[in-house]
Amino acid sequence: MRFIFILGQASKLSLAEIQSVLPQASVIDSSDAYAVIETDIADCQIFLNRLGGTIKIAKIINQPIAATTIAEQLSVNALGKVIFGISFYETKPTKIGMEVKRLLKEKKFSARLVTSREPQLSSVIVTKEKVREFLIIKNKYLAATCAVQDFADFSHRDYGRPTRDTKSGTLPPKLARMMVNLAAAKSNATILDPFCGSGTILQEALLLGFKKVIGTDISQKAVGDTKENIDWLISQYQLTPSRLTIEQLDVARLSTQLRSIDVIVTEPYLGPGLHGTETSQQIGKIIGELTSLYEISIEQFSTVLTKSGTVVMVVPEFRSNQQTIDVESLFTKVGMTVVSHRDLVYGRHDQYVWRRIVVARKK
Ligand SMILES: C[S@@+](CC[C@H](N)C(=O)[O-])C[C@H]1O[C@@H](n2cnc3c(N)ncnc32)[C@H](O)[C@@H]1O
């Protein structure tokens, strides 16, 4: 069956996540907004709940993009008032919704067309107003939405948890989830975040079903924050980890304490907050310091990882500067290979530092 996945703002990353979770599926078509994927999905909503980077999933309707098709679909199993809406992607919105409403009235259905100022209905509107949504994409595809992202649950985990370290910066849970998915690990794998901060990555790993989870950080406060957040998560979502260790540890000493780690998913220290006025010399200095930290870290990663272990790591991209941190060389030096493309980036236009996600495997 063919599905349309509506991708989040970091579309390349969102698509890479889908391909990692569905390695057998074929991508038929894609753009910055969507991907058309041939696959079998038993339950759209359960599947979408696993992903961090997809906003909606819709089933493609192999019929003409016409008001009659949509009205026909809506009249099947319609109970009471039909609440529906049309979202337009990469095409100019039309008045097709009004035409559908007229056709439904002709068939004696009571109907409400939900509209928005934007060409697309948001996931919030679709969920809250229980809208049966149809997507018209590029005048090429017509699809019926079968799942929308649980924005409220992501936000609960982000803002509802006991502690958030706004100083060191916390990773958005959606990005943490995408990173864990990019590791493509089995749920019996042992997963480590050696710069765990307030525990966002560990949270998403536990929710994705990983039972052996380790978090370490040089800061005692971060360790305390992570413990508090993970205790909260375990009780909120009734999780049952079989191994959960959260300890203070400098990344340079990882191999003195740990071995047999299957997967490392981490966001290391990314440098001081920038104001946008830094000279290229100042940024060069930050890059030099971070390169030293990452070199030590990657050496330690390769020692504690099992054979064919995986690292998924955030690396900063300085928008005002051409210089980057050459993590590819650092991984090569320890016999690991970077397998991700350089375009897996996450950031907003007003941010001076974007996050690049690097996936590397031990040979
Ligand atoms: C960007 S924060 C990680 C935030 C985390 N991803 C989250 O969402 O909460 C980086 C973390 O690296 C830790 N750190 C810095 N240097 C370290 C080192 N040498 N060894 C271990 N942790 C270190 C800091 O204490 C900080 O908590």
UniProtKB/TrEMBL annotation:
Residues 165-326 form the Ribosomal RNA large subunit methyltransferase K/L-like methyltransferase domain. Transmembrane segments: none annotated. One of its GO terms (molecular function) is tRNA (guanine) methyltransferase activity. One of its GO terms (biological process) is tRNA methylation. It holds the Pfam family UPF0020. SUPFAM superfamilies: S-adenosyl-L-methionine-dependent methyltransferases. It comes from the Bacteria. PANTHER family: THUMP DOMAIN-CONTAINING, TRNA (GUANINE(6)-N2)-METHYLTRANSFERASE THUMP3. This is Ribosomal RNA large subunit methyltransferase K/L-like methyltransferase domain-containing protein. The lineage of its organism: Bacteria, Candidatus Buchananiibacteriota.
